[in-house]
Hints:
Elements: E1 9-10, H1 15-30, H2 42-52, H3 57-73, E2 76-77
Antiparallel strand pairs: 1-2
Helix pairs in contact: 1-3, 2-3
Amino acid sequence: MFDLDHTLVSSPLDLAAMALEMRAYIEGCQGPLPARDERYRVGELVRWCRDHAPDISRPIWDIALDHERRAVASAWLEP
């Protein structure tokens, strides 16, 4: 079950922090991503890896899963 609007459960999942960690990993392995005004989103970084660096897709997914697991461990039910 998905609860994307947090009506049932709240969690400290920070997608911006996840994307920053992913970007740092990608750039550490592949060099700088193209500069842009907006931050890169998680989905964009996953797609970038799929299309340009499939060899680092697994570690990128590991970063996502680590953030998700920590958020689930700290989640709480909404009243």
